[in-house]
Design goal:
With 172 residues, the chain is α+β, with helices and mostly antiparallel strands. Helices cover 27% and strands 39% of the residues. It has a four-stranded mixed beta sheet, covered by helices on one side. A three-stranded antiparallel beta sheet has the order 5-6-7, with no helix packed on it.
Length: 172
Amino acid sequence: MSSSFRLLPIIVLLFHAKFLAAGQDTAFFVVRNISITGNKTTKPFIIDRELAFKSGDTIDAGKFNEVIERSRQNLLNTSLFNFVTMTPLCVLDSSGTGCVTVDIEIVVKERWYTWPVPVFEVVEPNFNTWWRNGRNLRRANYGMFLTRYNFRGRKEVIAAIRLLLRIRRIMR
């Protein structure tokens, strides 16, 4: 009777080990290569830092789509791109039966980065007064405000303003 009690923990341990091994036998993907196309201005390292994975990373198959979607949303949230498409391409293993390694193709469509904005200000106390007094352009400031987003491809912003100003004479 004592020998059966000694055997019971060993049998329980073997079954427990078998179930643990079965639970760890999950599928995964290894990211082999990441190719980026469509970025004419934006530098590749700006795109790479927004990705939730890098080349050589191992991603659980159950979370693969979630990681891809999070990376796509990260790129869209930078406000540098209008559209982002991420396509995983399966690289078959040596036996040709399964897909363990993937290449990820990222296609981006950059947005407009240069935005001109016309500037028009009246020198009168308000627009109606200026309109009633003959709409004289000598009593107005006008020009152009130019903003360049993603300057140098590094998500920097530069702004320039060019006003054709009329100096207001103070009447005494």
